[in-house]
Design a protein that fits this description.
By secondary structure, the chain is an alpha/beta fold. It is built from 13 helices and 16 strands. Helices cover 38% and strands 16% of the residues. 41% of the residues are buried. Bound molecules: NADP nicotinamide-adenine-dinucleotide phosphate (NAP). Pfam families: NAD_binding_10 (PF13460).
Length: 406
């Protein structure tokens, strides 16, 4: 299917679909509660030129409609997971409105052939509202895969909290009754600024549901993504050792592929049993420690394992120094935060934290999907990490090791 500009007066919008259901009114939907969870009573006006007449109608939940009549807004559509979510929702036959920023225009146009791509700015509530107004399409549900690209303190609050909040408000104003948030399992032990920003938004989703019983949310908290564990494949392939912290058993995770996670997120859009819930999710198979991941990689390469163990105290020393310097040079605050992010992932498992025992539990971490880390490593060994962008704040153990040796 080819892409075309929808109208010369609306250069922000690219359509590839013809079957969106246009909004039959120009004023916001007025919800009248209380009412059953799956029903909403709406008052609509046929058009802005006609007098507004109260016309009570019982609107069934979007979940009862066929996918081609359901409009889903996706913000963070151009991210590692967002791209797969857009494609998965399109594959399932939904009408997807993918919000992208201008700088990602080429990427979005190339990849989202089944979606309507709307170029806008999620960090500016007024701009986002105007963009959605100009689409004149009702929104049934929204999915947010937004995340700070840097993980810096201010940027985390700007994206993981404020931009997500802007997206919720805009989606709600255009009729959305369900919001799926891609969060992270690590927010259960919040020591980092991006985790606090995410938690604040998670709480606002719960508040929104409490205010309006016709609204629901699903908060998806995945364990580690494959891309986050593939950073050493190329260097190990080049003969270098696998680098890990402590004894390589301090943390573990049940990694999940981007496709499996996208499929789980798409399930959350339509599956009412997943509404009103916080959903931790990992991939298939047992939880893996860094040493097990390294052994798997050497096995695939047909080589004897070669490890370098970096004491975690070294990171504490570096972070301590950066935190001290940041008091004098505030520009170093983000550098200290990046150190804390690296330290966090070196020591904390990406598994459900059992409230009873206070320990991470592989058994209590649900598994979903079929893709395994071993298949992913085998693919990266063959094809490299191209397309597995790690993000600007990813913590590259190999570079750290090289710096230590210098
Ligand atoms: N990495 C892991 O192992 C892991 C594990 C569990 C959970 N998570 C969570 O999963 C979430 C998504 O991760 P991801 O890797 O898919 O994220 P990502 O690839 O970094 O994508 C972030 C998305 O947010 C958008 N964005 C960032 N800054 C923006 C700005 N200033 N204005 C407008 N849009 C902006 C990006 O747009 P552009 O493309 O235009 O930059 C992109 O669409 C995060 O919340 C992360 O914490 C990650």
């Amino acid at each position: 299917m080819s892409l075309r500009f929808s109208s010369p007066s609306n250069p922000l919008l690219l359509h590839s679909h013809a079957h969106f259901i246009p909004l039959p009114f120009s004023s916001p939907i007025l919800h009248i509660s209380p009412k059953p969870k799956t029903l909403s009573l709406t008052i609509t006006a046929a058009s802005s030129s006609q007098p507004l007449t109260a016309q009570p109608t019982i609107t069934p939940s979007f979940r009862t409609k066929p996918p081609h009549q359901v409009n889903i807004l996706v913000v963070g559509s151009t991210g590692y997971i967002g791209k797969f979510v857009v494609k998965e929702l399109c594959r399932r036959g939904f009408n997807v409105i993918a919000i992208a920023r201008e700088r990602s225009r080429d990427d979005a146009i190339r990849q989202f052939t089944g979606a309507t791509v709307c170029f806008s700015d999620v960090t500016d509530a007024a701009v986002l509202e105007r963009s959605l107004d100009s689409l004149a399409l009702p929104i049934d549900a929204a999915v947010s895969c937004l995340a700070s690209r840097s993980g810096g303190i201010q940027d985390s609050w700007k994206i993981d909290y404020e931009a997500s909040r802007n997206s919720l408000a805009a989606a709600r104003r255009h009729g959305a009754t369900h919001f799926v948030l891609l969060s992270a399992i690590c927010v259960q032990k919040p020591l980092l600024e991006f985790q606090r920003a995410k938690l604040k938004f998670e709480a606002e989703l719960a508040d929104e549901e409490a205010k309006d019983p016709t609204f629901s949310y699903s908060i998806v908290r995945p364990t580690a993504f494959f891309k986050s564990l593939g950073g050493q494949v190329d260097t190990v392939k080049d003969g270098k050792p696998y680098v890990m912290f402590g004894d390589g058993k301090m943390c573990s995770c049940k990694p999940i592929s981007e496709q499996d996670l996208a499929s789980f997120i798409a399930d959350c859009v339509v599956d009412e049993t997943k509404a009103g819930k916080i959903l931790p999710v990992g991939g298939p198979g047992k939880a893996l420690t860094p040493v097990e991941q390294g052994e798997m990689l050497f096995r695939l390469l047909g080589r004897d394992p070669k490890f370098v163990k970096v004491p975690i105290s070294l990171m504490d020393f570096v972070i301590g120094a950066l935190e001290f310097l940041a008091k004098v040079f505030p520009a170093l605050e983000d550098a200290a935060e990046f150190g804390r992010i690296g330290r966090y992932y070196a020591a904390e498992s990406m598994l459900v934290l059992d409230e009873e025992t206070g320990e991470y539990s592989a058994e209590k971490t649900p598994s979903y999907g079929t893709d395994t880390l071993e298949e992913f490593f085998a693919r990266v060994v063959r094809e490299g990490m191209a397309g597995q962008e790690l993000g600007e704040h990813s913590f590259n153990l190999q570079e750290k090791k090289i710096a230590l040796e210098d």
